[in-house]
Amino acid sequence: MKKVLIYYEQKQHKNSIELLAVARMIYGDDGTRKEGIEDYETYGVSFGPIEVEAECLFDFLIEVGDDSAPLEKRVEAHSQEQRKNNSPVYDALFLTSVLDELQQEYQFDCILFPATHMGRMLAPRLAMRLQTGLVADVTDIRRKDGVMEIVRPAFSGKLMAGILSRKAPLMMSVRQNVFSYAPDRLAETRRISHTPKTVCNGGIRLLEVREKEATGDIRDSDILISGGGGVMKDFKKLSELAVELNALVSASRKTVDHGIAPRSIQVGQSGKTVSPKLYMALGINGSIQHIEGLKHVEYMISVNTNQNAPICSISDIVVVGDAKEFINKLTEKIRKEKQI
Amino acid sequence: MKIICLIKFVPDVENFKYDYERNVLIRENVRMILNPDDACSVAFVLKIKEQHPDTVIELVTMAPQSIIPQLEDLLRLGVDHASLISDKAYVGSDTYVTSRILGRYLSEATFDCILTGTHTLDGDTSHVPAQIAELLGLSQLSNVVEIDEAAFCHESAVVMVDEELSYGKYEIPLPAVISLRKDRKYKLPYIKYAELSRDVKDRIQIIDNAQLGLATEQIGIGGSLTQISSTFVKSMEKKERRIVRNDEEGIDLVYSFLKERGFV
Ligand SMILES: Cc1cc2nc3c(=O)[nH]c(=O)nc-3n(C[C@H](O)[C@H](O)[C@H](O)COP(=O)(O)OP(=O)(O)OC[C@H]3O[C@@H](n4cnc5c(N)ncnc54)[C@H](O)[C@@H]3O)c2cc1C
Ligand SMILES: Nc1ncnc2c1ncn2[C@@H]1O[C@H](COP(=O)(O)O)[C@@H](O)[C@H]1O
Question: Which residues of A touch B242 (CB under 8 A)?
Answer without folding.
Answer: 316-318
